[in-house]
Amino acid sequence: MRTHEVQNATLHYDDHGPVDGLPVLLAHGHPFNRTLWAPQVRELAAHGYRVLTPDLRGYGDSRLPAGTHATPLSVFADDLAALLDHLGLPGAIVGGVSMGGQIAMEFHRRHPQRVRGLVLSDTSAPAETEEGKAFRNALADRLLSEGMAGYADEVIDKMLAPYNVTGQPAVADAVLTMMRTTDPRGAAAALRGRAERPDYRESLPRVAAPTLVLVGADDVYTPVPVAEEIRDLIPGATLTVVDDAGHLPGAEQPSRFNAALLNFLRMVRA
Questions:
Q1: Which of 13, 26, 67, 119 falls between 20 and 30 A from 34, CA-CA?
Q2: 129-178 confidence digits (pLDDT tens)
């Protein structure tokens, strides 16, 4: 694990694979940390890619700066750009899952010239509804008052397909542990910031880089039609539906997810 100072925060990140490999920068979702990408890190690094997986500020080992009430997606995106600057990288394949996918879309909106490719997994493009804003802000208040454990138990069978919660206990335990150990302050700040996100349907048609959209076949948070909308908005984008998976197909079905990701990366590298 390495660290870098970004915008009054210390970002902890892993850097695996050859230094001269095609860089792939992956943003985790809420409320997880960089270890969510462990199956992808191993596979991509073994195939010669340089894989960068940061803990977003307020998650994992990256602490939330004191006094932070909300963390807009623009702050997360600029943190990623600052990390690339620190590493001397003009651009990268930028990807993310769920909130991380929205951060990747925000990264493109703010730094389009640095995007060599986009990987958008189980995410959504529209701005938050008024009902959604109220829900996210109420959840932020709840997490601050109650902590993460109750919330984690409530959503585990939505983060993973229910049959994978029982059928893959090691994966379920790892996901639960990530959620339960997330700093409630970081999670709450991200929820408040995410509630105010822009509508990425306005910027996605301007994506000029190759794009892969992935989604678990049984994702209840961002179902297949949501992924199809993103694919249809981005010129030349391709969609892979990962069978036997919910909202986190990279963890639930890593072999299938990685196969699609490697095929995409080979095309970009070529």
A1: 67
A2: 999 999 999 999 999 999 999 999 999 999 999 999 999 999 999 999 99
d(CA 171, CA 185): 25
- Tokens at 42, concatenated: 């191993």
User: Do residues 34 and 14 touch, judged by C-beta distance below 8 A?
Assistant: yes
Enumerate domains of the chain plus CATH numbers.
2-269 (3.40.50.1820)
pTM > 0.85 = yes
The per-residue pLDDT for range 181-194, each reduced to its tens digit, is 999 999 999 999 99
